[in-house]
Amino acid sequence: MASPDAIPEAAKARTLSHMNKEHSTDLQHMLQHFNGLSASAAANPALVDMDLSSLTLAVPSAQGPPTTHVIKLSPPMAKWDDRRQRLIDMTMAAREALGVVTTGDHADTSAPIVVREYRRPVGVHWVVFFAVLHYIWCVAVVRAGLVQPGSVLWDFHERFFPGGAAAFLWLVDAIFYPVLAIHLTEAWWHDRTRLSAHGVVRGSRVWCMWIGSCLIEGAMSFKRFDALVEELKEKRAAGRGDSGSDSANDSEVNHQNLIVAAPKRWVVYEPMVLLPSGSFTTGPWPALLSSLPPEQTASLWKCILHALSPSKAPLTHLAVNEGIPLHVDESHQASSLSSLSPLSTALQTPKSHPQHLDENLLRSPSGLKTLHGDFGPSSPQAQPTQADFDAAFWVSTKQNGITQTWAPRFTMFSRGNVKEKARLLSFHATHPPPPPAQDATLVPNAIPTNSHTRPKVAVDLYAGIGYFVFSYARLGLRVLCWELNPWSVEGLRRGAVANKWTVRVIQGAELSLPTPELVTGGAGAQIVVFLEDNALAEDRIAELRASGLPLDVLHVNCGFLPTSLPTFRPAWAIQRASEGDGWLHLHENVGVEDIERRRGQVQGLFDGWRKEEEGDDGTGRAVVQHVELVKTFAPGVWHCVFDVYITRSSSGSSNRCGAGRPT
């Protein structure tokens, strides 16, 4: 049971997303005021965590990983619901202390106008802009000595310039320093009275564009900047209003404000549109949506889907992605896990999952906010039946030409893994390695020649909906995989069928049958999925080998985050029992500064296991050949894949293209 002051993960994610998306400049002001940072040291912050007593922010650094800063809340908040008012109070205190300009006649109740964009010259401003550019060109050609008697430029100015070429040379030189002084002064004044007062950080892209424009055209840029501020004031006044009413009929709920506050990004997983976290929670949207009757709200969502739909396949479902919670209801998950097989006690063994049971082991997207369309019934308490699967809503997408299918109400989908999927598809490319000068991410790895006589097998200990399973299947490998979530397994099965691969799901009473019978049955399906804990994988594969079934394991994938450490040694044992060489792909979240240190730790683990099993004279070898940086998981944290290459003898590495090129 959660404690009374527990912070809802979904609510926290929405708050972090909203602050980073809409209030980045305010976060910078807070760092300047409360932590005493300079504007440049606090530039472009990201709010990465928040609790009742502190805010944790990460600021990018040009020299290395982001710098973490903590703003203490004094006094701490009494409850999570106080966060909105506390953030407003801190924002206003920082703005007032920094002297950030505010709008309206009552600065204490108005929000400051922060400029985040550059406006190009318009109309007569272009005339001035190009006139000054022409003068700069004149200075350049004169100082380059291109206007000399007898030259084309001399003859041109002698004929057309009042007073002739000599007068042209005198004028260009005479006004150079006055023009330079005037424009430098204008740029300084622009920065002092406008840019810094409206939150434009010195050195930022927007600051450079305004200052560069001012250096050329001077006061014309003042007028555009002032006009932009006035425009933002009008939008602010229209969007905020003076009455404070939340009624959708108030004047602030207008077309322009709705567009400004609407989500600008989305992802299509046919036939669903998935909006980013925090969508329709800012500006006038909450007031509008709370006032509409259900039929009008449904009509709004239908209009959005219609506008986004391609001509051939209409989109029918709309949802907001609120992230995958780290924890779920303990009793619900325990019921789901215990129903997977008679070996329910094994499902809680530390060998496979060292975390507490209430961790979201199944990665269920319980925070998904459905807006329109029938997403199917709620998840059953026990193992879902075929009727549950048939009643659920399923979506699909294609990555690297491979179809993947899942039920968004019950299963997560990580689109950021596309890079790692592509890498696996290219893993055994036969072309030569790139020259050493190139920073190659994909290292070609020819299939070892010391075991070509046996069919190759891949093992995936965290199969999910087939994220990496399908990449191995596309390579022509047979895949044995393990997964706990029955919804993920059903998605994997449907995806395999869509890609025209044979697949067999082993679950329920079948799990008590001899493993060789299960794997060789069903006409030897290319993909075999065990709906059970991966703690049983090592023993099942040993049972297969004991029966005489040839299993030359080329790849073992351990793709669980934040770490798949509990499966490192089972993966080693599974591959080591093969006759041929192979690779382990071990996934972990690692701080950017700790990647090399973690690589050494992983290498040390395998060195210790090898010595423990073979002694000092063993010929086998395990080398962390490569560390792939897949995607950033959080500021300063990377989703890494450690490729461990396992050989049977020292000569084995010569059979692999690029074996001596760890990266």
TrEMBL record:
UniProt cross-references to PROSITE patterns, sorted A to Z: SAM_MT_TRM5_TYW2
Keywords: Membrane, Methyltransferase, Transferase, Transmembrane, Transmembrane helix
Coiled-coil intervals: none
Domain of life: Eukaryota
Region named Disordered: 335-384
This protein's record includes keyword tRNA processing: no
Compositionally biased region (Low complexity): 335-350
Statement: the UniProt record of this protein carries the keyword DNA-binding: no
Molecular-function GO term, any one: methyltransferase activity
Transmembrane segments: 126-146, 166-185
UniProt record, GO biological process: methylation
Domain SAM-dependent methyltransferase TRM5/TYW2-type: 338-648
Name of this chain's protein: S-adenosyl-L-methionine-dependent methyltransferase
